[in-house]
Structure formats: structure tokens, C-alpha cells
Amino acid sequence: MGKTKQVPKATLERYPLYLKALRRLESEGMQRIMSKELADYIGIESTTIRRDFSFLGSLGKQGYGYDIEGLITIFNMELGLNFDEKIILVGAGNLGRALMNYNDWNHVVGEIVCAFDVDPKESKSGIPIYHIDELAERMPENCRIAILTVSTKVQETVDKLVKCGILGIVDFTHEHIVVPKSIIVKPVDVVSTIQEMVFETNKRK
User: Which of 44, 61, 79 is the last residue of a domain?
Assistant: First the structure.
């Protein structure tokens, strides 16, 4: 991560988009690509792509472009991305089950390997659902990330996740939670996003 400490936030947010596109291109048999071709593929200016990539070193050659396999390897090494990341989901209600049924992240971030709930029931997704009381014993080895969709006892659940070694929480609860400074929490607020969209569309009337 040494090379990426000074990377602007906007650039870091684009890296997963590049990675997703590169893995798709690789699966289609492409071996190298020019920045202009990648720009057309994902809708980001080629100058922006070249600048974003420059934070990771000299990756391309003029007239040759970028080696796709090499780029993917560099993203994996330098950004610490793990395509086999084991993710757990806590809260197997309607939203949780929708996420389990989707569970297709294009091999960019891994997959949900199991879920926990106060009322575990069989899932159509095939992902096992365990009782929340079994969290410690059922926690997958080397699991670092949890998706949180519970509606009650949110802080209590968060405390359990932290105690079990979870380092990052994707939070759908809309509740205020307290975690140690070492824990990363990414709130997902669909309502706020819709409100922002309403505001933006109203401005265009």
C-alpha cells in the first residue's frame, strides 16, 4: 500500500471500476488495451485513466498500451484486493436475502459465503444461514468483512462482529454505531441517495 497512500479519494473510487472492466476484458480473451480503448469501454476519459494508473507506477508503453494480465496483478498486489474475499452477511431478512440471491460481484471482491440471523431459514441462494449465536464458531477463516442488514440490536451485533475479528462493515442499518478506530464502516443509505436524485431532477425542471 506504500505507493497508494497519497492517491486521491476519487481515484481510489475508480480503481474497482477499472479492475472490473479489466477482468471482463481478460475473460473475453483480450491481452492488452490502449487507454483510449479502455476509456470507450468504461466511459472515463483516457487522460483520467492514465493519471489514475500513474499512481501505481509506469504501467503502460506508448504505442503498445497496457498488458491486461499485468494490470490485474498490480491492482491485486498494490491495492491489497482479494478476489476470493470471504464475506458474511448478518441479517437474512428481505434485503439480506436479496443480496444473497444476487451474490455476483464479477470476481472483483469475493462472495458472501454464509449468513447469520436470529431466525435462520433455508435460503434459495444455497448460502448457509446460521443462528447469530453461532457467529463465533461459524465465522469463516480469514473473514474480514461483514454486510450488516439487521433491524434490531444493531450495536450489540456490531460488538459481536468486532470481537470475532471483522475489520470492515458495510452498514445498511441507518443506525448510529460505535466501533474502534481500527474498524472501517461504510454506510449504504438508499433513502438519502433517492433524496439526492429527487433534488437533482427537480433542479432540471
Answer: 79
